[in-house]
From TrEMBL:
Membrane topology type: Multi-pass membrane protein
Record protein name field: MFS transporter superfamily
Keywords, comma-separated and alphabetical: Membrane, Phosphoprotein, Transmembrane, Transmembrane helix, Transport
PROSITE patterns xref list: PTR2_1
Pfam families noted in UniProt: PTR2
Amino acid sequence: MTTTSEISLQEEYVTDAVDHRGLAARRSNTGRWRAALFIIGVEVAERFAYYGIGSNLISYLTGPLGESTAVAAANVNAWSGIATLLPVLGAFVADAFLGRYRTIIISSLIYVLGLAFLTLSAFLIPNTTEVTSSPSSFLNALFFFSLYLVAIGQSGHKPCVQAFGADQFDEKDSQEKSDRSSFFNWWYLSLSAGICFAILVVVYIQEEFSWAFGFGIPCVFMVISLVLFVLGRRIYRYSKRRHEEEINPFTRIGRVFFLAFKNQRMNSSDSCKVELEANTSPEFLNKALLVPNDSSQGENACKSSDVEDATALIRLIPVWFTTLAYAIPYAQYMTFFTKQGVTMDRTILPGVKIPPASLQVFIGISIVLFVPIYDRVFVPIARLITKEPCGITTLKRIGTGIVLSTITMVIAALVEFKRLETAKEHGLIDQPEATLPMSIWWLIPQYLLLGLADVYTLVGMQEFFYSQVPTELRSIGLALYLSALGVGSLLSSLLISLIDLATGGDAGNSWFNSNLNRAHLDYFYWLLAIVSAVGFFTFLFISKSYIYRRVDVV
C-alpha cells in the first residue's frame, strides 16, 4: 500500500526523469513550459535555417546553377526527402547510445558547418536569379556537399529536439499530460512563425541582394540558438531508463521478433508460458513468451511488456504507409507552387514585386492563425462532445488533414488551368519570360488550405508517433513521422522524373516543360488529388481497427 510519504515524493519528483546532475528531477524547478520554451526557441531557429535554404532552393538551382525546371524540382524533392529520412538514423543513435541532449549538440555543430560551407559555395558562384551556364564541377560539388551536410545535421537535430521538448511534460501527471498535448500545437505554431520570418526576410535578401548573404543569415541564427540551448541545460528534464530497460531498447524489442520466429512451431504440449498476462498482441509475437519445458526457468523468456512494445511498433506500419498520401502532395509547395508564381504578376505596390517563394508565408500565417483557434476553441468544444481529453483522437486529426490536402490539390489544379488559359488568351504560350496578366494572389487559397491541413495532419502525426512508441524510443517515433515526409518527397521526385521521361521532356509536351506555359502542372495536381483521395479511404479503413498503446506504468 502506498504511504503518505511516498505519495508526497511522487508529487514532488518526476519518476521517469533526472536533472542535469543525474538526480531525480523536481517538478518545481525542472521541465514544463519554462524548459520547453528554451527548446522551442532552438527549433524556431532550425526551421528558420532549413526554410531559409529550402523555400527558394528551386530558384537557386534554375538560376545560378542553370538546371532545368524538372531536374531542379527532382533535386529539391530528393534533398528534402533524404533530409527527412535521415532522422531515423539520428534517432537510432540518440535512443540507443548518445541520448537526446548530446545528439542535439553534435548534430547542431554539423548543421552549422554545413551552413558555413553553403554560404562559401554561394559566395564563389555568380549572384543571379537568371539561368546561366553551369558553374564548375568543383563549385557544384561543394554546393551539394554542403546541402547534404545540412541534411546530416538535421538528422539528429529534428527528431531529438521535439522529443526532448515533449519529455519536459510528465504523462503520468494529468495536468502535464494535457499541457503536452498543447505543447505539440504551440510547438508547430512557433516554428511556423520562424518559417514565416525566413520566407519574408531571407528569400527577399536572396532575390534582391545576395545568395551568399541569404545563406549566411541562417548560419548565424543556428549558432545563437545552440548557445541558448546550452544555457538552459540546468532546467531540463533528462529521460531515465527503468531498471528492467537498462538493456539497449532495440536489442530488447528485436529479441521479441527473434524468439517469436524461433518458437513459431512450439505449442502448449512441449512448452510453457513464462507470463500469462492478457494482451492484444498477435499470436505470432506471443510465441516469444514460450520456453521449452526442458529449459531452465525463464531461459530466453520475453516479458509481456516487451511483446506489447513490439506489437505497438508493428501497428504503426500500415498507418505510416497511408500517411504517404499526404506527404506526396505536401512536397509540391517548395517547387511547382513557387515556379507558377514566377510567371504571374507579382506587383504588390508600384515598383515593388514580391518574390514568388515568399507566398509560402501564407502557409505559416494559416498555421499561426488556426492553431490558437484549434487549441482554445475547437478542442474544448470537441472534448464536451467526444469526452476525449484532446478533443478528437490523433488518427481522426490526421485523416481530416488528408481530406484538406486532397481539396488543396483540386484547387491548385483549377488555378493552374486558369493560368494556362490566360497564357493562351494573350498569346504568351511561347514567351516564358513574359509576365501573365494574372495576379499571383490567385495562388493564396492553395497555400492557406495547405497550412490548415498541416495543423491537422502534421501536428497529429507528431503527437501520434511520439505517443505510440515505447518511452525510450520516442526520438524514433518522431523520426517515423519525418520519414513519411521524406519518402513522400522521394516518391514525388521519382514520379516527376518518370512523367517527364514519358511525356518527352523539354523537347516534347512534358507536364513539367521549363516553359510552364506549355507544361501541364494541372494534370499533375489532378493526379495527386486522386492519390490523396485513395490514400484517405485506405487510411480510414486501417484507422478503424487501430488499437492505441497503453501509457507506460511504473
